[in-house]
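Q: I'm writing a short explainer about DNA-binding GntR family transcriptional regulator for a general audience and would like to include a description of its predicted shape. Could you first generate the structure from this sequence?
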Amino acid sequence: MLDDNQDPPETSLAEEAYRALLAEIVSARLAGGTVIQQRRLATEHSVSRSPMRHAISRLEGEGLLVRTGKGLLAVRVVTLKEYLDSLAMRMLLEPSAAYQACGNINADALAALSEELDAIDRARDPDPEDVWHFDDGLHLTIARQCGNGFMEATIADMRRYTTIFERQAKSVRSKPGVAEHRAILDALAAAEPEGTRQAMVRHLEMVREGVLRNY
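A: Of course. Here's the predicted structure. Afterward I'll give you a sentence or two in plain language.
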């Protein structure tokens, strides 16, 4: 018998399959335009077709999988316009989120993020996965701690699109925005809401300029 707080096995497997596929899409291991083959993916992830079907359906509902002209299901190709539109939404929301999160992020979390950034800065050629891990950690921590669940969810959704585009276009700098990220962390540590907001504005503007310059 299942514990009252325990998910049914099929539900847990579907959630695991969803998270695994989402990670592959966001990281561009499943590149835009890749046709989805349910049976192959189920075999690769060692699950039955039922939980994989649920995971695929969920990703289609979120717009990350789309139907092609031939009716096949494929990974969405994020266009430059979609990228810029998503980034524009982030530029509207994230500075406010940074302002509101200031003072809500504990010192240990900020210290851990600072150590990650230091390691990236010291490395001659940092591992791109370490760079993405830090970037996700900083931006999503700010979103979680802004105190607005709708803002948090929208920022996370928009970051999916911008991350997919950047990773597929390989437009990320080897040490992306170290100085910009340091300014955000310093302002958070000093509990300066307006300084944090301004630092986030500068960072996102630099991201936009960098992608347009290198596209």
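A: For your explainer, you could say: The domain at 9-75 is CATH 1.10.10.10 (Arc Repressor Mutant, subunit A).
Q: Perfect, that's easy to follow.
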